[in-house]
Specification:
By secondary structure, this protein is of the alpha/beta class. It has 10 helices and 10 strands.
Amino acid sequence: MENINWFKQAPDKPLFEDILWSRPENRMHAGKLLVIGGNKHLVAAPGIAYSASGKAGIGTARALLPDSTKRMIGKVFPEAEFAPSTPSGSFAREALDHFLDLANWADGVLLAGDFGRNSETAILLESFAQKYSGQLTVAGDAVDYFLSKKSLLFERENTLAVINFGKLQKLAQNNRPQPPIKYEMNMHQLVEILQEWKINLITNHADMFVAATADGKVSTSKMSQDLNWQVELPAYAATWWLQQSAKTFEALTTAIYCYET
């Protein structure tokens, strides 16, 4: 039987052309995105994501980094703002107020990655995800903080995970172990599982991007070999999602098309 909630997007033809033509023409009405990430030793992810959001058509973007990066990044990234960091250079729990203040300005927040592994940062990100009710996109190593049992990726509304297949397996093992997600499974099997999950995510499998939404819809699109997809695609997805908040599935599917073209 044909799966009527599985949509296949061709490389040269978007599934939802009307979405392409209904974007805000004025950047003042094209949405506000807050990009958060980085640690003392690495700030590539928030920088790349910030730049990609501009390419994706965001109206205004702001970036929030730990203050341990200020000397290193302040002059080359003048748009960046800073929040308290731990002695090791990751975001500290005291950064929560900064997160929430800027998130209240934004239409959506992207946790872009390069957070590192830090127990304080783990507490901070969980607290932020619980207190902030707006659109939240989780990507890069930020996903690692949301893979445990009772993951907020399942329990929190207005949440999107851009997640590679290996991390998707771990998320499944801890939260939806049956049926198991395996590398050798075919696309039809994966699609059926994600439809049952009722979760917003973008992942990769068998050289395809897979977008799934909480209403049980799934789209597949041909995937390029761009190694930066886990950093750049989340910015496209977050941008399109906040611009088309009432059409999550169409927005994520179109974001993939625009990223690939």
